Amino acid sequence: MTRWVTLLPDGDTDAYGKAAAGPGVLGGSAAADLPGSFGGTGATWDVTAERNPADIAAKAGLPEPLDTVALEPMRGGYVPLRGPRVKRTLLLAVRPGTPGALVRQLEADLMAMPEHISTIRSWSLSRVDQTLTPSPWTHVWEQEYADVQGLTGEYLGHPFHWTCVDRWFDGEIPGAGIVEPRLVHVFRWSREPVLTSR
Which of 59, 72, 78, 154 could form a disulfide with 119 if both were Cys (CB 3.0 to 4.6 A apart)? Predict the structure, then answer.
């Protein structure tokens, strides 16, 4: 089974969620992106399946997703959380030619964030599986929160974020600004866990 993150036009997201219930599909969840999201296409569909979500959508007679990435999970953490939660997804691309040591330091800093930011519940850092989905994106950083404030407040405003992580996204910092300016930062409500212990 592969986990996929898919960007959809804002519309009938329930139909995509229902489509992720057929053979070869372990689970799926779709919803409109919330205000404050940027770089996305209106909605996000998270799928765990043996097949590409584009194939799942086509079989259900739904419009093709606008962007799809297959995930190669590096590390994650699972924290039980009852009820609805906010699922945040960040798609980023490391600049071509970046030394591997710098990429690994970026990854280490992202994976260290849950140790410092208490509002992060379940989380996962993945590289994009370029064999399944050739893509300009290189990494996907995902988290779940009990509410929007956990993301827009403590996460984005935490000292660890703006002292240790933001530098990788600032092209004016020599030796650190290795992430391309274009990002997808989207977050939405989910009735059930997306990042699970599986």
Answer: 154
> Beta-carbon neighbour count of residue 4 at 10 Å?
26
C-alpha 49/C-alpha 108 separation (Å) is 28
The strands making up 25-32's β-sheet, listed across from edge to edge, are 25-32, 42-49, 2-9, 67-77, 123-128, 139-145, 85-92, 184-190
Q: Which residue has the higher pLDDT, 18 or 92?
A: 92
Between 103 and 156, the higher pLDDT residue: 103
First to last CA, the chain: 10
DSSP string, 144-166: EESSHHIIIIIIHH-HHIIIIIG
More confident call, 87 vs 161 = 87
Residue 103 per-residue DSSP state: H
Distance, CA of 24 to CA of 56 (rounded, Å): 10
Q: Is 167 strand, coil or helix? A: helix
**Farthest-apart Cα atoms in the chain, separation:** 49
Q: What is the pLDDT of residue 198?
A: 54
Span 170-198, mean pLDDT? 90
